[in-house]
Amino acid sequence: RSITYTDAFKNKFMDEYLAGKLPRQIFDENGFDVDIIGIKRIEQSAHRWKKAYEKNGLIGLTDSRKTGSGRPLKRELTPSEVIERQEARIKLLEGQVELLKKLEVTERRLLNARENLDPNKVYQLIYETIEQNQFKRMTKYFCDLLGVSRSGYYSYLKASNIREAREKLDLDAKEVILKTFNRRGYKKGSRSVKMILENEYNIIFSRKKIQRIMKKYGIVCPHRRPNPYKRMAKATKEHQVVPNKLNREFKQGVPGKVLLTDITYLPYNGNCMAYLSTIKDASTNEILAYHVSDRITLDIATQTIHKLVNNKKITLHEDAFIHSDQGSHYTSPRYQRLLKTYGLGQSMSRRGNCWDNAPQESFFGHLKDEVNYQSCKTLKELKAKINHYMVYYNNYRYQWNLKKMTPIQYRNHLLVA
Q: Is the pTM value of this prediction over 0.70?
């Protein structure tokens, strides 16, 4: 005719009920026979406990019949009973004070840690706080304190298995991406990683996934810093400037026709300086010839031209021309006579306009990002590193704007087409 439930079960019922479970499901999972108790009794109990919990919290769920039963005491208390009751009250107040102190420290820590966190991180913070400090039954309080929903917190706890499975998949992807990132000794961005995975490992990852994994685990590709003060060298007045016949039409789809050239500085071993001159095919991005020297005389430019013409692996177009800036090397009468001797045309960027030779500038930027040339002790060591990078760049460095091919693969693709 009457059923008494323990305080522990009522507390557990409220936790699971607030997490979204139905009263009948909770009773059934905790070993009660729903048919014997009756669904109406279960619903009435749930309504009564919910109302008491909203009014007085956990205290409202406590069975007061044990302490409040019987007739009120009319006699005067003995001195020993008064002392006993006062000591119990003092212990209760001391416990409440300690709890408030502990709660105050926890509140400050949570609010400080809450800054700039997404909701999932906040849920994790609440969970760790409750578990470490034994703040049971205070989920709603902490959720309100940090401005997140309680239903979201319980959903977060339910999805722990899904998160663990997803984390495992991310770790597996991280291993593959990290292996590709460090392949052949040069660090790469998300585009290069995607192309290498597809071409060499037959693994298809979307670029967004690669970017997410790299960001999540701190896999950072070096970035060039723009230099607003960098300007092209001004040509001397006695040297002759030729017109800009390229007009930024770099991708003409004809290998060996548009040839870009420039010179860059390579400091090494503290106070030593070397110089790199290259000739790049604008259509395929292939480095056709290059020369490293410790002197920036005219010979560095002319030697590069000699290497270009003597390279038997490439075939120049009959209308091939060299495009450069207006530096003194390229406006030199001796350099211009050399080009005419080899039947090469010439084009120059507008004065002080680096964008007219942008692909060549971009190559130097990538080289300086990916090659640790400053650690070289000798010029011979520096040359060896540059040689190694040129082989890597032409044969193994996939490029997004070359249909995800390497420069040599793209050159062969254009020749077949």
A: no
